[in-house]
Amino acid sequence: MSFPLKFPADAPLLTITHPKPALWVLEMHNGDDNRLTHHFIQKGLLPALDAVERDWRRNVKPGPPTKDHRGKEGGRGALIIVGKRSQQKFFSNGLDFDNLMKQHNNRVDFIPGLIGAYNPLLRRLLTYPLPVIAALNGHTFAAGMIMALCCDYRVMVDGKTRNAWMTMNEIHFGATLPPTFPALFRTKYPDGHLHRKVFLEGHRFTPSEALEAGLVDHIVSGNTDAVLAKAEELASSLEHLAQLGGYGVMKYEMYRPILELSLKDLHITNIVADDEAAKARL
């Protein structure tokens, strides 16, 4: 397989590089803010994740090591996902909510279908067989934040030279949540006070606040290059964990309730319908 790879090939929205034998870097460049659209997920992110896994699996010999285990050095691997390097403002601005609202005449009943496209990405990242590190080189909003939290580790710019926030801001623009989003938080962060701050207040976490809350693992001074350097350092310390093929299987068992929930028919309360029903009842 020859790198760099671009997806989709005819109009690339992301690029995969392979700078080291055990490292792959996926750079998103779907516009400046990497909105998570159907097209970007289905034609860009999901096939790109497949391509990295195919390349990694060429050197994997799963199972416990033996004396003649030829995969002793092979099978190592880690993946970094980063926002567009040249703009250094966004990791991802979440789902393309504004344009979808316009297309659907300001109705919110399109959301289950959109989440139906997003859930496969959530499942893929939660069970990915390599350690996945999100290099947050800017704002990480809404579904972009969930995407980052589906990764195993997060390194974020410290926000001192420019603003960089992490937030679930749905409460501020009248959107509700699919069941998988709070389920992810319940699994990774049992603190109910944090849930309230994230979902009911829509708090904008600064990088230092995100670090204190455990939403990110490291914050780094500087630009995207500095964030990537720290992510690469972390990747080097983790790459051996993928070597025997159990990393993704282990994650599946950790996140089984979320994965099973994401496969069920989605029922998301329609805010407009809820208001009408409440008025009728009252």
TrEMBL record:
Belongs to the enoyl-CoA hydratase/isomerase family. This is ClpP/crotonase. InterPro entries: ClpP/crotonase-like_dom_sf, Enoyl-CoA_hyd/isom_CS, Enoyl-CoA_hydra/iso. GO terms for cellular component: peroxisome. GO terms for biological process: fatty acid beta-oxidation. PANTHER family: ENOYL-COA HYDRATASE-RELATED (PTHR11941), ENOYL-COA HYDRATASE_ISOMERASE FAMILY PROTEIN (PTHR11941:SF75). It comes from the Eukaryota. CDD domains: crotonase-like. PROSITE patterns: ENOYL_COA_HYDRATASE. GO terms for molecular function: delta(3)-delta(2)-enoyl-CoA isomerase activity. It holds the Pfam family ECH_1.
